[in-house]
UniProtKB/TrEMBL annotation, chain A:
It comes from the Bacteria. Transmembrane segments: none annotated. GO terms for molecular function: iron ion binding; iron-sulfur cluster binding. Residues 54-83 form the 4Fe-4S ferredoxin-type domain. Keywords: Electron transport, Iron, Iron-sulfur, Metal-binding, Nitrogen fixation, Transport. Could be a 3Fe-4S cluster-containing protein. SUPFAM superfamilies: 4Fe-4S ferredoxins. To ferredoxins from P.putida and C.tartarivorum, ferredoxin I from A.vinelandii, ferredoxin II from D.desulfuricans. It comes from Candidatus Segetimicrobium genomatis. It holds the Pfam family Fer4_ETF_QO. This is Ferredoxin-like protein.
Length: 94, 433
């Protein structure tokens, strides 16, 4: 089962305002690629982070709020905030 | 903003810890607001799925008559697996009819919804759909919270921080540092739907009874962690996790890890024909005792995952949270009685924890997270050696049993010299004694 199919099962209340941003995109481009190969693109369980060749593209609508990226970015370069009240992932079973 | 406190206590987070604290305080006559960032309690919450009866009964006596339990756990199994074999151990029991079940499986959305209702019935004011963004501080003392709502400041004599794993509020209140990726695990799981009768037949269970399987070994692909299969009424909770630091280093994606776990030849037959209903991910505190924040200060206490209260070896967490929540609540009742919410009074919370299994167990295993993180290979090597040894003894190939013992010993010492085995055993004993 692919990750896209897994995410397709989930429900969110999407917020147009993103709760995630990359603090300094130059760190991803110039430092993290060689030193760490941008681990956010592999450890994020919801595939929020993708490398588009120049920068990390953030699909904040996919976020399941596990907070792994807060600790897992080697440069603490992901500014992740709790979604606004009532927004974000809504588990059906838990 | 009125200067006097509008409420005795604010609790942040409607999980097991927060609800236990809120419920205890409300029953003790305190006015309590419970903030929950989800649209309703439960929708943000995930765990493997095993909860313990005793600590819940301390907060909601006779809970088993109304709580949405999935199955009563009567069969707990441990598997040590290699790619093509498993050594299995387990314990089964016949549950007693009266009193709370020792352990039961839950799905957190219905369970937490029910639990929060108990708090509301006791007079707690539940405010859902509201994210608490910061604590309000006056001098050194926590005096309330800032929510994401317009005019969202609220003051109270006490703030109980129960916002879960990777707590932002603990840091904002200056009670703890930011965590490291080797102090937190990432766990993914799926809810796989199967008819109740199929589950009962496959796991050899009576109706309503449940089994748990913890799976160690090759399934985590060299990372420190384990897989699990828990039975719900009409579904299985199937998951696997490892330290975030090891996901970073190995570049294994969590969903691949879960897929390969589900495809393991020992696991796949149990899931056959099941339909995946939900895919979930959550962080689990792994750092243990040494990574706990300060548990109280003037006007504030911390409970549950927010305080790193997880005993991973025994897959206990929600029970520690519920016990801690109750103790925080009892401490608050005392503080209200004498009219002093300073750290001097709230220190009683820490004393209650110290006198209980919560801090005693966390202290007992304080060295374990370090060992697990340094030596994830141990979880791979020894299951393999054990499995090979048993496989050898059970394979009837004409070799004498003495010859087989020699083969096993040779294979063992080829892989690891005897002095290192002794050292591993010593380290293991030291981390768990």
């Amino acid at each position: 089962m692919k990750i896209e199919e897994k995410l397709f099962l989930l429900r969110w209340k999407h917020d147009k305002r993103s709760h995630i941003s990359i603090t300094n995109p130059r760190v991803c481009l110039e430092v993290c690629g060689t030193a760490w190969k941008r681990p956010c693109t592999t450890f994020c369980p919801a595939n929020v982070y993708a490398w588009d060749g120049e920068k990390i593209a953030v699909s904040h609508d996919n976020c399941v709020e596990c907070t792994s990226c807060v600790l897992g970015c080697p440069y603490r370069n992901i500014d992740w905030k709790l979604p606004r009240g009532g927004f974000g992932i809504e588990w059906q079973h838990g | 903003m009125p200067s006097e406190e509008e409420f005795d206590a604010i609790v942040v987070g409607a999980g097991p810890g927060g609800v236990s604290a809120a419920l205890t305080m409300a029953r003790g006559g305190l006015s309590v607001v419970l903030f929950e960032r989800g649209e309703r309690p439960g929708v943000k919450n995930v765990m493997g799925g095993v909860m313990y009866g005793r600590m819940l009964a301390d907060v909601v006596p006779e809970f088993w008559k109304t709580a949405p339990m999935e199955r009563v756990v009567v069969d707990e199994r441990l598997w040590l697996v290699t790619a093509e074999s498993a050594v299995t151990a387990g314990h089964k029991h016949v549950p007693h009819d009266a009193g709370p079940p020792n352990a039961f499986t839950v799905l957190r959305v219905p369970f937490d919804g029910w639990f929060a209702q108990q708090a509301e019935a006791a007079g707690v004011l539940l405010v859902s759909g509201t994210t608490v963004e910061d604590v309000l501080v006056d001098g050194e003392r926590v005096v309330g919270v800032r929510t994401g709502r317009a005019d969202g400041d609220l003051r109270a004599s006490l703030v109980v921080i129960a916002d879960g794993a990777n707590s932002f509020l603990v840091q904002k209140a200056g009670l703890g540092r930011s965590l490291e990726p080797n102090e937190m695990a990432l766990v993914v799981k799926e809810i796989i739907v199967l008819p109740p009768e199929v589950i009962e037949e496959r796991f050899t269970l009576d109706p309503g009874m449940g089994a748990t399987i913890e799976v160690y070994g090759v399934v985590t692909r060299g990372m420190a962690g384990y897989g699990f299969i828990y039975t719900n009424r009409g579904s299985l909770s199937v998951g696997i996790g490892a330290l975030i630091s090891q996901f970073m280093a190995t570049r294994i994606t969590p969903w691949d890890l879960l897929e390969s776990f589900k495809a393991h030849p020992m696991v796949a037959p149990l899931l056959r024909g099941g339909v995946v209903r939900e895919y979930l991910a959550h962080a689990i505190p792994e750092g243990g005792f040494r990574t706990m924040p300060r548990l109280f200060d003037d006007g504030v206490m911390v409970v549950g995952d927010a305080a790193m209260m997880v005993n991973n070896l025994h897959r206990e967490g929600s029970n520690l949270a519920m016990a801690a929540g109750r103790m925080a609540g009892e401490t608050a009742i005392q503080a209200k009685r004498i009219g002093d919410w300073s750290a001097r009074t709230l220190a009683q919370y820490r004393e209650l924890l110290e006198a209980s299994f919560v801090l005693q167990d966390l202290r007992k295993y304080a060295r374990l997270p370090d060992l697990v993180e340094r030596r994830p290979d141990l979880l791979q090597l020894y299951p393999e050696l054990l499995s090979e040894a048993i496989h050898e003894m059970l394979t009837v190939d004409g070799a004498s049993k003495r010859e087989k013992q020699r083969r096993i010993l040779r294979r063992l010492l080829d892989r690891r010299p005897w002095w290192r085995i002794l050292h591993d055993a010593y380290e293991g004993w030291r981390a768990m004694k």
